[in-house]
Amino acid sequence: LLAAGGGACAPAQGAGTASYDVSPWSGGNPGWKLIDTTGKTWSASDTAGRAVLINFWASWCEPCRAEMPSLQELADLHGPRKLLVLAVNFKEPPARALRFAQTLGLRMPVLLDTDGAAARAWGVNIFPTTLTIDSRGKPRQRLRGEVDWSAPEPRQRVSSLFAG
Fold first, then answer.
1. β-sheet bridge partners, residue 55
2. pLDDT in tens, 79-111
3. Is the pTM of the predicted complex or chain greater than 0.85?
4. CB under 8 Å to 129, separation ≥6 — which residues?
């Protein structure tokens, strides 16, 4: 599914099949600064000392909607002092992103990539895409497609970010 904003939605997950791919991050560490739905500005320096998941999503993307509950559960499990999960909305009006977050009961920060610059900096063109950053601030992996964050394999990937 190709989006009007220049990205594609990953295929919906089939029963019992993994619907995401994982690749090591090799693009350096792009600087970023985004505003969340409350008006707070976030940047990489705000994440120091914590493992971070940066999840790029859009409300028109069904796999994004399907993934969010397990992503919020993961954020709740570890807490923001250990694991900061940032949900970055791709090129949608702030009111739509906020409505989406409220509908799903998201408590993690919802950041707004209104012009798509952050997605471009991180090489994101498939939604959802999640970037993992270890507790030392080093980007580690890119997971493209819908992830069930309650499954053992993704949980192990997240646990490996705490080492160091």
1. 87, 130
2. 999 999 999 999 999 999 999 999 999 999 999
3. yes
4. 55, 56, 122, 142, 143, 144, 145
Instruction: Note every long-range contact of 150-155, with CB atoms under 8 Å and residues 24 or more positions apart, other chains counting.
Output: 150/70, 150/73, 150/74, 154/74, 155/74
What are 1-39's pLDDT values in tens digits? 444 445 778 766 554 455 899 999 988 888 789 999 999
CB 74 within 8 A of CB 161: no
Tokens 């999640």 -> residue: 130
Separation between Cα atoms, residue 94 and residue 87, nearest integer Å: 13
| Helix 94-104 × helix 62-78 angle, to 10° | 60
Q: What is the CA radius of gyration of the chain?
A: 14
47 within 8 A of 38, measured Cβ to Cβ? no
What strand order describes the sheet that includes 51-57? Answer: 19-24, 139-146, 129-133, 51-57, 83-90, 110-113, 33-36, 41-43
